[in-house]
């Protein structure tokens, strides 16, 4: 409780650091319908779908062969290469986002990433080691953001020097794009704790209240441009199919769990409604809801026509069952055999032909497909392209 109280104090302090003039910049920037917005920075909140190194920094690095396709080595991502958030950064012409928790080699001049693998909207009353879900929930990420504003602006203004090259300018906090991609783990955490479908569904309204509260906090700190992803078809992920076979029993013609996906769709419906309410509450801000579910399910359901192999077949895993997924041996996982560590969680030969990287996350090729589907705004509400996401005010 004391920490939550200090978070509210930090909000007020951080807000005070932002001169009122910067809160007016967004309204005056980029006159002319259809013109691209100027997003000098991106601040991201989420889970492993957009984590660029948070969990690796806090709890141990993602092992090889993660990163093999693009980075040539592990790069804090649970993927063979780039994530959707990396393609967003490329499209906006800014560097890949450094994880806030990564203290070595980080550059925050054009944004920061607070996402952490295993994170949830709600707080987890357990540990990462017991449940597999991160203690760095969305509210903790928002507190990190408050601290980031306070500390970065103090250091930028009082120490100067190299810090002015590594930290954002004050006006960037209002001009930036704020991206959110979280919620998948809240649904699976419920199921993994043996909740019924009705119980998981009953938890969704509270999740919406929490995410709305966090966005309100970010708005209070100067955020004005929000790009909010729906959750994906969790019923098509091998780890979910295996963990609760009772929930996965009824499948569609692709092999995905009907129940899992219906719950994900209900979550997304409520999220879209929540974003609409936020749009009315804060007419000075731009809110874009992005239907990532549609992009991912299109890829999975049309995989063969799009040049991919079996969309439910894991690329990096251990041969155990129909999905090449063993919950006891993850990607890069090792076992001790006669005194020597042997890697069992190996990569397939060509990750570019797989949708699933490790049974939980997508490959770089799949992430690129998803990004290409959402960047133009065709799956967004309102239907604005990524580069014009500041133009959805009042829509």
Automatic annotation (TrEMBL):
Classification via CDD domains: SGNH_plant_lipase_like
Keywords per UniProt: Glycoprotein, Hydrolase, Signal
Recorded GO MF terms: hydrolase activity, acting on ester bonds
InterPro entries named among the record's database cross-references: GDSL, SGNH_hydro_sf, SGNH_plant_lipase-like
Signal sequence extent: 1-33
Top-rank taxon, per record: Eukaryota
Family named by the database record: Belongs to the 'GDSL' lipolytic enzyme family.
Protein name, UniProt field: GDSL esterase/lipase
Organism field: Hordeum vulgare subsp. vulgare (Domesticated barley)
Name of the encoding gene: LOC123425496
């Amino acid at each position: 409780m004391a920490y939550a109280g200090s978070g509210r104090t930090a909000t007020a302090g951080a807000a005070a650091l932002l001169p009122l003039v910067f809160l007016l910049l967004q309204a005056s920037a980029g006159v002319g319908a259809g013109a691209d917005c100027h997003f000098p920075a991106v601040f991201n909140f989420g889970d492993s779908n957009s984590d660029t190194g948070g969990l690796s920094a806090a709890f141990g690095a993602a092992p090889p062969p993660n990163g093999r396709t693009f980075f040539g080595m592990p790069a804090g991502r649970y993927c063979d290469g780039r994530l959707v958030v990396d393609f967003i950064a490329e499209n906006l012409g800014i560097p890949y986002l450094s994880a806030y928790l990564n203290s070595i080699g980080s550059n925050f001049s054009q944004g920061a990433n607070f996402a952490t693998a295993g994170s949830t909207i709600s707080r987890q009353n357990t540990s990462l080691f017991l449940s597999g879900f991160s203690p760095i929930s969305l509210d903790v990420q928002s507190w990190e953001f408050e601290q980031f504003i306070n500390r970065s602006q103090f250091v930028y203004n009082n120490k100067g020097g190299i810090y002015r090259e590594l930290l954002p300018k004050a006006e960037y906090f209002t001009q930036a794009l704020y991206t959110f991609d979280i919620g998948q783990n809240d649904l699976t955490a419920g199921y993994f704790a043996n909740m019924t479908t009705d119980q998981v569904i009953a938890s969704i309204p509270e999740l919406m209240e929490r995410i709305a509260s966090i966005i309100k906090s970010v708005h209070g700190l100067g955020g004005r441009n929000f790009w909010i992803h729906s959750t994906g078809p969790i019923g098509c992920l091998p780890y979910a199919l295996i963990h609760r076979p009772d929930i996965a029993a009824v499948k569609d013609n692709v092999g995905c769990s009907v129940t899992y996906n219906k719950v994900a769709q209900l979550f997304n419906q409520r999220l879209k409604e929540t974003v609409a309410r936020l749009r009315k509450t804060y007419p000075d801000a731009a809110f874009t809801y992005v239907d990532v579910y549609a992009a991912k399910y299109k890829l999975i359901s049309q995989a063969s026509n799009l040049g991919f192999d079996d969309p439910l077949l894991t690329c990096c895993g251990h041969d155990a069952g129909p999905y090449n997924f063993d919950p006891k041996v993850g990607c890069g996982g090792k076992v001790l055999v006669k005194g020597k560590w042997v890697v069992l969680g190996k990569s397939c030969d060509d990750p570019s032909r797989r949708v699933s990287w490790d049974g939980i996350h997508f490959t770089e090729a799949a992430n690129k497909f998803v990004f290409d589907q959402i960047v133009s705004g065709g799956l967004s509400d309102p239907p604005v392209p990524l580069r014009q996401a500041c133009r959805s005010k009042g829509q």
